Each structure stands twice: as C-alpha cells, then as structure tokens.
Amino acid sequence: MPQPPRSPTDSGSMQDKSASTRDGCTNIIWTLLLVGYVIPKIFLYIQRLFSPILRIPGPWVHKLTFLPLKVAIAKGESHYFTVNLHKQYGPIVALSPTMISVADAGEIKRINQIEDWPRSEAVYGNFRQDPQRPTLLAFTDKKAYSQRQRLVSSMFGLRYVRSMQPLMLNCISVLMEELETRRRSGTATVDMQHMIQSLAADIIGVTTFGQTFDLTVTKRRALIANCKEPPREDLLQKMVEAADQDNHPGSTFRSSDVQDEVVVLLIAGSEATANAELFTLINLLRNMQKLATLYEEIDRRYPKGDDRQTDCDYSMPGMTYLQACIDETMRLVPGQATGSPRESLKDETLLGYSVPKGTTVFPTTRVCIGKHFAAQEMHLSLMSLLRKFRFKYIPGQDESTVFRIAQQMRGSRYMMKVSLR
Q: Does the record's keyword annotation contain Transmembrane helix (predicted)?
C-alpha cells in the first residue's frame, strides 16, 4: 500500500536529529583531541617552563620545542647549528628541551672518561633495525656494549689490521693507474671526491667481503662477483665464525648481528675515512707552504726514484708532519661534529648549571673502534698519492659540508688538477 506523505513537521524533526548526531560526533572528536593531545601538550610546555634546561644559555625557543633542531638535522646542518650556538652563548648551550651541548674540555673528560656516562637512548634508539639486537653503533647498555666491543675490536687489532695492508695497497694501485691514465696529456682535472670515496669503498669491500667493488675504475656500482681465488680470512669470515654456535657455544653474537654490523662497516667505515682523506687533501691545497713541508718529509722517508711500496711499519712512526695534518683536519672538520651523545642517569651539574635526569648531552669528541684500520688506510692512501702526484687547488667550488652519516661535502664532486711530480 502507498505510504502517506510525511508532514513538514516530521521532516524537520529528522533533520534536527541528524544535526544533533553530527554535533554529538563533532563534540566527541574535539573532546578526544583536547584530552589526548592539547591538554598533554599544554602540561608539557608548562613542565618545560620550569625545567632546569631553561636556565642553560641558548635561545628560548630551543628550550620549548624540538623544531629548530629537527629542521637543522633535516637540512644536514646540525653541526653548524651546534657550533654557531657555542660561538654565541659559550661552552654550554641548550639544543632542545631535553638536549644540550658541552664544549668544555674538563666536563667532556668527566662525561666520556671519568664517569663514562651511557649513550643516549633518545638518539641511538633511532639507529636500531631490531630494538632488541642493536649494532655496536647503537648500543646504550654498557655491559652489552662492552661485550660486543670486545668481540668486534678483536677484529681491528693492530696486528690483524697490518695483515690487511697488501689488500689496501692493491686497491690504491688501481687508483694510481687510473690517475696515470687520465693525466697522459700532462695535467688532468679529476673529481677527487669520487676517486677517494670509491677507493675507500673498494678497500672496505676487499677487507670485509674478500673482493673489491671495482668502483675506482667505474662509476657503476658493481655487484660482488663470485671470487675465484682461495678464500681469505676477511672481516666477514671472522664475524661468521664468531656467530657459529658450534665453535662458540653460548655466544651472544648471531647471524643477524653479522648482517647488521657489516652494514655499519660498509657505510659508516668507508664514508668517514674517505671524508677525512678528502678534507686533508683540500686543506693542504689551500695551504701550499704546508703542502711543500709535507712533500719534504715524504721525500726524506721515500726519496724520489725509490720503488719501495708505502709501508706503515716503516713510515708511520717517522711521518709526524703528515699525521699532524690529518689530526688537524679531523679537529677542524670532525666526522662526528657533535660527538657521541651521552645521557645523564641522575640529576647532574655541568659548568654550574643543573642538568635533569634523562638529558642528552653532546660532548664534542668521539673514539672510533676502527681507528687503527682508518689510520692505516689514510696513511697508505695519502702517502701513495703524494709520493707520485702533485695536486692543484681549483677555487670557486662549493666547500660547505652537511652532516649525514658523517660530516661530508655538500656537493657531489670536488675537482682538482693532477700531474706527475
């Protein structure tokens, strides 16, 4: 049967109910938003207004919000951000509501050595693929870090690192041949940033995986081919053996840890060393008198016409000027520009300022577990290059840096003029 038509009153009543329902849903949403986000944010900002961090030198906005620091990190400029704050405000500055930076030698020694504060969970927690299985880079628990450090550091002992010298020299010889080929007409303009980065990656490849990536002679990132040579005891093999439960029952090192630590070696190891070599060369080219002094030291140790291969045991102890140039470069352009962040486990006092428990503190130094490996690679690479070639500075290039894995050139290439000595 046909339904009787609805009266205007019935239609208006239904519209009122629909509007009332919508208003009710809107009110619920606003209430949830207010209770779940706005009110906690208000309390958080009130808490920050009474935090001891507020009394530490630095812009007020940094003490109330993380936004300025996050913007600097996103732009790769966290190192400039921190350095500029220290220049303006002094040896202790607030970076964010829960992070500060300290540039006082006494307090840095206290944090890093005397009291050995643990690594910051707020920072290193972001570097874990598996929160329960961090790499050596991302450990914050001291006991677990010490166990992994002992395991991995045994692979970077000086004797074992010296045994890798022939492998490193083989990679360097490929780079030397490539430069020779490019400068056949006399002087060549070469992208030394690409060359040095490729060399560092090839060295990591041959010492970690047993075979070079062949990046020095091609810009194409080659895959590792099946090695036809007898297997070598490279770093990867040592890690695999450490994770072998049959040979090391009860070992906390697992197969998944091998994968994660190798990624750290491949990326962080090659990047940091390559950048240090490149910045050392650039600084020398900008200071020709210093470069001339270094050439004199090189010629005293390795006279012209001497076919002896560069050898760390022979030349490192006596090449004090070269090491001073490397050290000064790493001071001026440190790989980890803001240091290894630590965390206060209790309320502390730094330079007379109260620092609440849980604050992340950035001291300005960092110790590298692979220092022997990096020192050997830098010595062999720079010595071999400077023994044979002269490099000339090309002005007008972008020499600004960004901080990603390590402090590195902002530009994708850096050109130098290369000729035979």
A: yes
Angle between helices 235-242 and 255-264 (to 10 degrees): 150
Q: Could you tell me the CA-to-CA distances from 392 to 58, 195, 218, 303, 397 in Å, in that order?
A: 42, 16, 24, 22, 13
Rg value, the chain, Cα: 29
The whole-number mean pLDDT for each consecutive block of 10 residues of the chain, a chain of 421 residues, reads 54 56 69 68 75 93 92 90 93 94 91 87 71 59 65 72 90 91 84 93 84 65 39 64 60 67 71 92 96 96 89 92 93 76 93 94 70 90 95 94 85 93 86
Q: What's the predicted TM-score (pTM) here? A: 0.73
Q: Is residue 359 part of a domain?
A: no
- Separation between Cα atoms, residue 73 and residue 90, nearest integer Å: 21
Residue 385 belongs to some domain of the structure = yes
**Rounded Cα–Cα distance for residues 205 and 386 (Å):** 24
Where do the DSSP E strands lie in 230-382?
342-343, 348-350, 353-355, 360-362
Beta bridge partners of residue 100, listed in sequence order? 94, 361
Smallest Cα–Cα separation from 54: which of 46, 259, 19? 46
Q: How far apart are CA 398 and CA 59, in angstroms?
A: 30
Question: What gap in Å lies between CA 247 and CA 241, rounded to an integer?
Answer: 7
Residue 295 resides in a domain:
yes
**Domain membership flag for residue 7:** no
CB atoms within 10 A of CB 248: 13
Instruction: Quickly count: other Cβ atoms within 10 Å of residue 360's Cβ.
Output: 20
Q: What is the CATH number of the domain that holds 190?
A: 1.10.630.10
CB 163 within 8 A of CB 237: no
